[in-house]
Design a protein that fits this description.
Shape: globular
Structural class: alpha/beta
Helix content: 40-55%
Distance between the termini: 43 Å
Largest sheet: 8 strands, mixed
Strand order of the largest sheet: 1-2-4-3-5-6-7-8
């Protein structure tokens, strides 16, 4: 395994680290996207650990900075942020295709990185799979029961909540602190886009942490959000690691995450020579197509 830094993109404005495995079979490349404004190393070097471990399993990898993030500059093109993300990831795939011989790609993203992975995966035919870390989900009736019932049964919590409601608005805002929330797209649209991905044969891995507990608090919530048929699709894997934090800062939590991703990748994307690739999954599993929309 070895790595090298490279500049690439339409204006040579993107910077990334390409990781090469020792094996010659390099059909599936893994691209790790920025988590928010954290540069390509990821939160507490998570992306470095992740890509090196995947290199050891035979996967070429690229961790890079999107336009204007980290060490990447601007392309000076007139594009929306969504167009820019699609163009940047397309450039990243072209780089891995040229330098490592990859023919298909898996995207991995945490938080806003998961949203960018979703954006690209739902429209780019070169993407064969994605790992969404704390990706899209929506509060359901089950979520509200699991979230609010324990609080209603705890008198001290009820009293604190009543005290906050009796405070003046400014004091109440100060006591809860500033909160950052990302507005998700409509649930029906995300459901349809996920259904379209699995119909195209994509393999999707959803991993939710305890850091997402303000909108996701149980593994079965995925089915409550998107329907049982989609949740039970063999191309979809869902895990809920409720006791870990959003950035997997503890060593055991980080190891558990990397174990899960490595196992999922090796199961769905065994590294074989390009002339040994199976037929696209969409041609082999049409039975779910009529049930997903």
């Amino acid at each position: 395994m070895h790595e090298h830094a490279t500049r690439f993109g339409r204006a040579q404005h993107l910077l990334g680290i390409v990781g090469y495995p020792s094996s010659d079979s390099r059909t599936t490349g893994v691209i790790v996207l920025n988590a928010g404004l954290v540069h390509r190393v990821g939160p507490f070097r998570m992306h470095v650990q992740m890509t090196r471990r995947l290199n050891a399993c035979g996967f070429p990898t690229l961790r890079f900075d999107l336009s204007t993030v980290g060490d990447s500059g601007a392309s000076n093109e007139s594009q929306s942020r969504e167009q820019q993300v699609r163009s940047d990831v397309s450039s990243a795939m072209a780089l891995l295709r040229k330098q490592a011989g990859c023919s298909r790609f898996v995207l991995i993203g945490l938080c806003s990185g998961a949203q960018n992975a979703h954006l690209v995966a739902q429209g780019d035919e070169a993407v064969a799979g994605a790992v969404f870390l704390d990706g899209y989900a929506y509060p359901t009736a089950g979520f509200k029961v699991r979230h609010y019932l324990p609080r209603l049964l705890d008198p001290s919590r009820v009293l604190r909540a009543l005290a906050r409601r009796l405070q003046p608005p400014a004091a109440a805002a100060a006591s809860t602190g500033s909160q950052f929330r990302v507005e998700f797209p409509p649930q029906a649209r995300v459901r349809d886009e996920l259904a379209g991905m699995v119909q195209r044969g994509l393999k999707l891995c959803f991993i939710y942490s305890g850091g997402a507990s303000w909108y996701f608090n149980h593994q079965r919530q995925f089915g409550e959000c998107y329907g049982r048929t989609l949740a039970a699709h063999p191309g979809i894997s869902v895990s809920f690691l409720g006791e870990v934090d959003h950035t997997y800062i503890l060593a055991d939590d980080r190891r558990r995450l990397l174990d899960t991703i490595e196992h999922w990748l090796c199961l769905h994307f065994p590294q074989v020579a390009r002339d040994e690739l199976p037929e696209p999954a969409i041609a082999r599993a049409p039975a779910y197509a009529s049930q997903l929309r």
